[in-house]
């Protein structure tokens, strides 16, 4: 993509829990920040490198992009107590690093995503020091999600602490971009005084015009030692309690006789990985495989040839989540089978725009019925895949997300 220089350019600092090594990589944050750089803005990224990586704090410079990787405690894919300690220490650790490396730099925009909600002090300091605007990309509603999962007790000290931090964060943010219409409605319903600062700015990616097709489907099936008529059902991403991926074990067992051509690929990592791995070792299913995390390039090579994408969200959720793995499925022209709670609008959107099927998490009979639908009609699968790709182009193109943020900055200055 050619650079598009805009006037006036501005400086944006991005605070994130996601480790970013280079904007040449793909991902919802990488793609968005790359848009800023391509439009001539200076981009400064502050992100953790967790203790488990063994890396030290370092500053990486790439043209108009500077990436400050700060050594921290383990935050991702850790237990609730380790994560709590890490999140509580992040503000101090990141602020100290920003002061050391970026003290003399003046920023126009502070961009950040939840989680975490514990960077209020750093954001406040940056706002006052720079007279900068702040934009929150709301990817997680915490602590309510932890209450829904039974990780935090409602009304407890830790709940009240994090609730106050959440309220402070929304007040600090000049604009809040939500993942979906239901996400926006929920936020306004619980924080109506922020009505005028909330908009829908969903997860988005820079869409590849053509798939790489690094391997043919025949090569992928040979690699997995599967017959050519196999239909691949892909779950890719986090394997944690919020996703409830253990539900797939029941679906896998019941599908073997009902849908013999359906094969389930579970690729990812998380707190439930070991439980799934023990089940696979004990059960040895003939119609499924569990693969621990793959590099993005290898995962994409498989995803390009999968037939249906799976999304799971536990039914206990009272907040409307919208998993970003949907984008991978749509980009690869896969119809979606969503098994979610009743407050997320992902499933209803998939059915409304005819790129997938939806049932309530735990309703195995309905899930099996939808799998039967996909198995029975290859043409319908392809049509749904094309519908999803078109919806991706219209709604989840990263250029649209960038334009919303840029317009906010330009209209405010």
Oligomerization state: single chain
What can be said about the biggest beta sheet?
8 strands, mixed
Q: What count of helical segments does DSSP give? A: 15
Number of domains: 2
Mean pLDDT: 90
Give the end-to-end Cα distance, rounded to a whole number of Å.
Answer: 28 Å
Gross morphology: globular
Order of helices and strands: EHEEEHEHEHHEHEHEHEHEHEHEHEHHH
Note the beta-strand portion. Answer: 15-25%
| Helix proportion | 40-55%
Spatial strand sequence of the major β-sheet: 3-4-2-1-5-6-7-8
Q: Unreliable runs, pLDDT <50, ≥5 residues?
A: none
Give me the Rg, rounded. Answer: 22 Å
CATH class of the largest domain: Alpha Beta
State the CATH superfamily name of the largest domain: Glycogen Phosphorylase B
CATH architecture assignment of the largest domain: 3-Layer(aba) Sandwich
CATH topological fold name of the largest domain: Rossmann fold
**Strand segment tally:** 14
